[in-house]
Structure formats: C-alpha cells, structure tokens
Amino acid sequence: MICASFLPRSVNLMLPPILTVQNLNVTFAAGAKQLCALENISFALRAREFICFLGPSGSGKTTLLRVLAGLQKPTAGAAQFQLAQTPKIGMVFQQANLMPWRTVLENIKLPLELEGVSDANAKLKAQELIELVGLRGFENSLPRDLSGGMAQRVGLARALIHNPDLLLLDEPFASLDALTRERMWGELSMIWQAKQKTVVMVTHSIHEALFLADRVLVLTQRPGKIKLDLPVNLPRPRADDVRYTHQFGEMAKKLRAAIE
Amino acid sequence: MKPFISRLLGVGSILLFIPLWELIVRVSGLPKFILPSPADVALRFVKALADGSLWIHTGQTLTEILLGLFFGASFATILGYFLAKSYLLESILAPYLVASQAIPIVAVAPLLALWLGPGSASKVLICSLIVFFPILVNTIVGVRAVPAALYDLLRALHATRWQILFKLEIPAALPVLLGGLRVGATLSVIGAIVGELVDAKQGLGFLLKLGDFQYDTSMVFVAVLMLAALALSLYGLVTLLEKKFLKWMK
Ligand SMILES: Nc1ncnc2c1ncn2[C@@H]1O[C@H](COP(=O)(O)OP(=O)(O)OP(=O)(O)O)[C@@H](O)[C@H]1O
Ligand SMILES: [Mg+2]
Fold first, then answer.
1. Which pLDDT band holds residue B58 (cuts at 50, 70, 90)?
2. Which of A77, A129, A151, B30 could crosslink A146 through cysteines, CB 3.0-4.6 Å?
3. CATH for A8-87+166-172+198-260?
4. What is the pTM for the complete model shown?
C-alpha cells in the first residue's frame, strides 16, 4: 500500500471523510445564564488527515475534542463518524494523565487491557510502542520518576496502542520546554506518517500547527466559531528549517491575523 | 542508617520500661494485687498460656474483632462508594449518618447486649458499628478524589462500569481506603472489648473483668498486654498491605 502522506494533497483529498461535524453547538449552564462554548461548528475530516485547531483560551477547543471523544453531548448538531463500528479513540490530554500506580508499560497497555487482549500480547505491543516513542529502559519506571516530556510520550504511546481510528491531542506539548517540544513535533510527525493516523490536535502555537497539520482551523473567542480554515501545503516530511520559508511566514501571518 | 538508629532507639526505650516498672514496684512497695511486678505478670502469662485459657480467650476476641472489622468495613465501603457517586443519596442519608455519630456506641453497648444476648453477636455488631463511620468517610473522600481526567480517559476508551471500578476507582482510592482501615483496625479492638466488658462468658474483656473481681491483677495486665498485641498486629497488617499495594507512593 502506498503511504498517503507522501503523496500530493489532492490525493489525500479524495479519501472519504471519516467524520463530519455539522452545525455543532455546545451550551453550558453557567448559573442562571447560558454559556455558549461552541456555535455552528461544521467541518469534515478525511482519513489520515492531520488537522489543528488554533484559538484563544476559552474558545471551546477542549470542548470540541470532548465532543469528538464522546465525553460531551452536543446541545445541537452532531459529530458523525462514517465508520462501520463505534470509533476507537486515542486521546492525549494536556496533562499527561497517567495512572500514578502503574508503571510506564502498564500505563501504555491499558487500552488493550480494556479491550480484553491477552496480557502477553498487550505487553508485546506495549514494548513495541515504547521503542517507537523512545522510552526503552523505562518500562518499569513509575510516572513520578519521569520528566514532563517522557510522561507526555507515554501518553502518546497509550493513545496509539489500540490502533485508534482517530487520535485527539489536546495541547499535548504545552507543558514542555521549547527544545523538547520541537523534538516531539518531529517524533509525532514521524509516527503519524508511519502509522497513517487521522489526527485532530488542539494547540496555542501557530508554529506547532504549521509544522504538523494538513489544515489549520482557527476558532474565535467565545462563542467558538470557525473563523478560518487554512490548508497547509508545505511539503512533507517537514524539516526544522521549514519555518524560514516564505510560504510558512505568509501562513503564519494569516493565522496570527485571524487569532487577533 | 537513620531509620535503623531510630528503630534502635525505639526498642531501647521499650526495654528500659521494664526495669523502670520493676523499680517502681520495689520502691513503692505496693501489694501485688494493686501493682504486680513484671515477673509476676510474666509468670501469670506463662500459666495462662499453659492451661490453655489465654488461647481460648484471645481466639474469641480476635474472632469478634475480625468479623466486626470485616462486616463493618465491607458495609461501610460499599455504602461509601454509592454515597460518593450520588449526591442525592448523600443528602438523603447524611442526617442519619451525622446523627448516628452523635450517639456514643459505647453507651448503646448494654442495649445491644440485652437484645442480642451474651454471645459473640453483640460484640461483632458493636465492632462493626464502631469501625463503620471512619471507613465510610474515608471511602467517600477517596472515591470523590479520583481524578476526573482519568475518568475521561476510561470513558473515551469505552471502559465498562466494572472496568472503571477495578482499573481506576479502587486503585486510585486505595491509599485513602487503607488509611480508613488502619483507623478501623485500632477501633475494632476497642469495640470488641466494650462488648465483652458489658456481658460475656469468654474473651479478653471477660478475662479482664474476672481478674478484676478476683484481685488477680497480674491477669488483668496479661489481658491488657494481649489486647495491645492484637491492636499492634492488626495495625502492622494494614501497614503490610500498604507496603505491598502502595509501593508506587514510596
Ligand atoms: N463542564 C463545563 N461546564 C460549564 N462550562 C464549561 C464546561 N466546560 C467548559 N466550559 C466553558 O466553556 C468554554 C470553553 O472551554 P474550553 O475548555 O473548551 O476552552 P479551550 O479553548 O480549551 O480553552 P484553553 O485554551 O484555555 O484550554 C469556557 O468558557 C469554559 O468555562
Ligand atoms: Mg483547553
């Protein structure tokens, strides 16, 4: 099979959507008042597409991911998956969100345990992912002994292990220092290309979005509406110095203007 | 080295206690039925051990303690879990639970003995009642403190209710649950003794009362020391459980 991510975007566009979000509204009750977190959100997501949501704090980015993960019911509209079975979700949270009583290996194999995979197989698969995210030698470490970046990589491995249909990333690198963060971009990019995942990622960083995504969607301040849907046509794999190209600069400018 | 030294000091101070006790007995010249010497107590201990009575009474009390702890802790943990999950249930039951705490269990012990007779049932019940509340409270606190983000993780992975219980709630709440059990273990000894002091034909509480009636103060001492040993063993058992299951907390 041809690896789609290396092909021109036009081919990627011909893949069927696996998720359509239509007129999605989410309203919270805030005391007596109503708080509209998301308003009229519509977009389609194709298989193997990597999209980023950018937006100011409180624009409903986390809320959107929670709807996609089935953790939050929309007030109106719907997020519909075009899949035969209920979608498998892999989620990376802003804080690594590991179980402190489980070792790295045990944390990573949790999704397989829940699926009833035999322990031997789950361990084998977890070991594979530990290699992938570069944590060999830390299998039996506890989360408290990991650095922030390592914990985040455990979270990523856990999100990937059960071969999810959709990967949801909520500012996964926000708590990391700049150097680690950029190394993680490279790693995530590689993993995404190798595993051919469909990804929705939330971020505050324009650089991060442009480095990783096929498309960047900008949300407005509350209530969150889609203000801009920008395709990112930068060639892949994207090297570090892609940020110095004219194209990158232009897109960054557009995004910055949209965020205000 | 440090923990070793502190342990050494602990053992030393206990060993020092015995000669001190002996000294007080000699200097004060108090009669044996008021303050027996360590040697008197040791002799009485050996005698009670030899005629088998100490085993029977200790076994009786230990059985009551363990049964009381088992029933009290099980019921408190299960009820606490549902209270933690449901604010509705909590608001309905809270007045009863708070009111029940205002009643000193010790004061109703005679009543329970009257209703349930002199057998072990009343002791087991008193034991259960006395350990119930602290374990209930700890369960509620522990289950409510399970991080919401971890619930999200499991729900996003389509975990079943049972999976959430066994893979998240129990391990996450375990430190607080064992904390409750630690308090309960100590209290359960008190519960059993209170029950036996009221009315019993057997058990360390009975031995205590018997010794008191017969001016056999050495035997009272033996019973008290036995009780302390039981409480310490239970406490140690919980500590052992913590060592085994809470390694990750160091
Ligand atoms: N469960 C909830 N109940 C009430 N209000 C909520 C709830 N969840 C989110 N909100 C509100 O909805 C709005 C959007 O929140 P959300 O967490 O989605 O923003 P965000 O874009 O992820 O922000 P940030 O970038 O700071 O993470 C906020 O105003 C928040 O207060
Ligand atoms: Mg957020």
1. very high
2. A151
3. 3.40.50.300
4. 0.85
